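dumping this here before i forget
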Amino acid sequence: MEGSSGNFRHLRASRILSTIDQLEKRIAERFPASSLRQVCREFRELAGGIEELAHACSQPIWPVRLVVYLAASLLLMVASAAAVAVARQFSLTSYDIADLLQIAESAINELIFLGLALVFLTGLEMRMKRRRILAALDELRSIAHVVDMHQLTKDPASLLAAHLKTESSPERTLSRYQLTRYLDYCSELLALNSKVAALFAQGMQDPVVLSAVNDLESLNQGLSQKVWQKIMILDLAEG
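structure:
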């Protein structure tokens, strides 16, 4: 379509948040007293903070970059001054060559330490961003496990066959249709959890962050498969 090139190549945080808002309304209308609604509400608050964090992490942290540039420039200036001083004092005699070998060995060691210092400085900004992102992904992972706990006792077998209820059996008051909708909402929450995490992968190329996002997506997918197995059991039994 003309004028729409690229509109569907990136996740839009605003659309994800509006979908979470809509899901919370749907849960509230069908299960107003359910704690799953509260889970969705807390997830929405977390997703709003992650949207801001993902946007911030896609932008440079200029104070940190300025300090890194100044420190790296200072290190290079010191190394250059030392090299110039050695070159001015050098004269090609056997005695000086022996000294030069010792100086060269020391210089190589200093260059290694200088290189390590530069690597540390240039990666400082990414490590700061990575720490905040991994903390946010841990919260999303906790949300996924909470959703899984909510569907854990929603057993379709209790509706499809006669069973003997014990004193410790959980309350099962949902009809077959209600149970299907409840499980469907759990699956949607898990899918949206993955989409919120993907906001970080969309704006960064850090392998640690990408690996953490992929792990979270795999977790959500595995939990969602358990939910859909229950939904399929209900659908097949109804047919």
